[in-house]
Amino acid sequence: MKYSLVLKTNSGSVSNIMIGEALQSEFQSLLHKIKPTKTVFITDETMVKSLHTYCSPDNKSVFILNSGESEKNFDSLKRIIQFFFDQQIDKKSLVVAFGGGVVTDITGFAASIFYRGVSTLYVPTTLLAQVDAAIGGKNTINFNDTKNVLGTIRQPNHILIDINLLHSLPRRQINSGMAEIIKYGIGFAEELFSYIESLKKIDAKAFLHLVRRSAEIKVKVVAKDQDESGGQRKLLNLGHTLGHAIEAQKNQKLAHGEAISIGIMFAAFISEDLGHIAKKDLERIRESLEKFALPTRAYFDVKIALENILHDKKKAGESIDFIAIKKIGHSYIQRLTLVELSAYLSQFSL
Ligand SMILES: NC(=O)c1ccc[n+]([C@@H]2O[C@H](COP(=O)([O-])OP(=O)(O)OC[C@H]3O[C@@H](n4cnc5c(N)ncnc54)[C@H](O)[C@@H]3O)[C@@H](O)[C@H]2O)c1
């Protein structure tokens, strides 16, 4: 079974998305159709073997990052740009990102600034990247301890989401991706949340459904509000205010989705306190996250978390736009003063 989706933004850019199993021949057909002057590949040390099995690139055309969040930095960006120069890519070349969200984020950034934009094809290989990071055109790196502070918005031209690539993905990373899928359910689609609650095991059919529904939701939101100016796209940040702040703390060992899981629970905690969701919904949210062995509380330094939140892009004067939950399937923007936020953080930290 194959699905196609088109993300057409209000600024006119288009991402063609294909979702399915074993898409190697679709990958080759795409290259044939695009006919780039040159194709180069960015991947990481974990995925380089799979890349060679998937599409047999010439060794010289492959740039390999170390694996992990710490690679999303200025130095790696510079090395990728140098690689583009060494490979003599031009405006008609194609840059393929083959990996998780770290690879797609930094590749997208490098490709968006090289000659002010070279075409990209993403093959996301983690569940998290398939349902979230690869879609929507946010291309970023971290700077000092602040997540995603440097970047551009530019849509990848093509995204090939092959769920067979998830076979090698460790359970912990699958669970990390589930956090973002649960986010879509809580924030946008009650039926997706109920589906997750009722899941007994995730087989290929379930993966296809989860990935497809998540992609549809993200496409719909980004199509209306690519630049986060209309409020809609901000809602995708459910769980990310505290999630990013925890992720940015030095020596934290959490996967992205694990940090987001704690952030989702924080949003649920505030939403219950504000009287929007009932205690039983708070428990449903906790259970859905725990079902995938995701953490729902953590110790964090409140002062540092607050500083990180202030560095993050959600600040507006002395308040922040916090994404809260009106009811399961519906999120909204709640203005919180920094005093209120600080009090909630103190109550929530273990
Ligand atoms: N741009 C966006 O809109 C957006 C949205 C959400 C998250 N993100 C970013 O995405 C990043 C997190 O992405 P991630 O969770 O994919 O992390 P990641 O890219 O670090 O991948 C996690 C680990 O899994 C390994 N891996 C990847 N594919 C594999 C496979 N098929 N089999 C075995 N191992 C595999 C990687 O090498 C890495 O060690 C964060 O930097 C986050 O900020 C971006």
Automatic annotation (TrEMBL):
Residues 63-175 form the 3-dehydroquinate synthase N-terminal domain. The keyword NAD applies. Its cofactor is NAD(+); Co(2+). Keywords: Cobalt, Lyase, Metal-binding, NAD, Nucleotide-binding, Zinc. Its EC number is 4.2.3.4. Residues 177-315 form the 3-dehydroquinate synthase C-terminal domain. PANTHER family: 3-DEHYDROQUINATE SYNTHASE. This is 3-dehydroquinate synthase. It comes from Candidatus Roizmanbacteria bacterium RIFCSPHIGHO2_02_FULL_39_9.
